[in-house]
Design goal:
The protein is mostly beta strands and about 300 residues long. The protein has strands at about 15, 25-30, 30, 35, 45-50, 50, 60, 65-70, 80-85, 135-140, 150-155, 160, 175-180, 185-195, 205-210, 215, 230, 245-250, 260-265, 270-275, 295-300.
Length: about 300
């Protein structure tokens, strides 16, 4: 940057205290009788016997000592030693002096960061614009295979809840309970159920009940039954030895922080016995399958 007049000069320039030559090559440098520590020999202008000496070649420095390349004698004269400016010393930066605006883009890279020590715990309470994702997951996996008969029975077209209370063995169920952490949370229910009915499975439609009283999915429309999903029917011509299945995902907003139970339910066109995780026929044959059914609730 140009200046009007004399440019400012930075640094401290000192003529050091006089030195008296003797039979040694090492001399202590002082300024105002206090030890002076040059950073490098190149910082000093040294005259010996009227001749300017070359730093590093004719002399070096070590701490506060000036060391000639050979010992002098009392007849030699160290004319003067001048320090051509002090090396800048940088103190501690004041708190808050360095702001984000003073740091260049991409100036800090991962290889320059310390890799030892323990990182502080992260607190996400102030983060915004980040999806919370899945807050919790609850799964019920039903492995029951009732070898002596069906597990659930329905009568007519009314929905039959697959709860333990409605199971022939009083234990099998396709339901899951979750307690939302927030009334505004949504609940994602996933169902994968394997079964075979003792009647044509084409007439079976499936839905979910919330807390055994609120039916979810499509409502009935006149004689048309409403629900969520239809059966995936096997293409096998033998209705008694190859399982069918139903698989679906449904989103609900219970608007509650109380424990909420979701129960799978089915409606058939006629009275139906449903065999869970197995085929109707149960002989010991490679054509007879067994499976595992699952219902899962996730708070999102």
């Amino acid at each position: 940057m140009p200046y009007i007049g004399k440019s400012p000069v930075g640094g401290g320039f000192h003529k050091l205290d006089n030195l008296t030559a003797s039979a040694t090559d090492t001399y202590a440098l002082t300024l105002g009788s206090a030890a002076y520590y040059p950073e490098t020999a190149n910082q000093l202008l040294v005259s010996l016997n009227g001749v300017i000496q070359a730093p590093q070649d004719s002399f070096t420095v070590s701490g506060s000592n000036l060391i000639f390349d050979s010992a002098l004698t009392s007849s030699d004269s160290i004319d003067f030693v001048v320090a051509l400016g002090d090396v800048l010393g940088v103190g501690s930066v004041s708190d808050g002096a360095i702001t984000t605006a003073k740091i260049g883009n991409q100036a800090v890279t991962m290889d320059k960061l310390a890799t030892s020590g323990t990182l502080p715990a992260l607190d996400g309470s102030a983060l915004t614009g980040i999806s919370s994702g899945v807050k919790q997951t609850v799964v019920h996996q039903e492995t029951t295979v009732k070898t002596d008969g069906h597990v659930f029975a329905s009568s007519g077209t009314a929905y039959r809840l697959m709860s333990a209370a409605n199971a022939v063995d009083s234990t099998s169920k396709m339901e899951v309970t979750i307690t939302p952490s927030s009334a505004s949370s949504k609940i994602l229910i996933s169902v994968s159920c394997f079964f075979e009915p003792n009647t044509s499975s084409h007439d079976i439609i499936w839905t979910l009940y919330r807390n055994t009283s609120t039916r979810l999915g499509q409502a009935d429309d006149s004689n048309r039954r409403g629900g969520i999903a239809n059966t995936i029917t096997s293409l096998d011509s033998n209705n008694d030895s190859t399982m069918d299945s139903v698989n679906f995902i449904f989103q609900d907003t219970p608007n509650s922080t109380s424990a909420t139970t979701y129960t799978l339910a089915f409606s058939a066109g006629a009275s139906t016995n449903l065999f869970l995780n197995r085929t109707v026929a149960y002989g010991d044959s490679s054509g007879i399958e067994r499976a595992v059914s699952l219902i899962m609730a996730q708070e999102i």
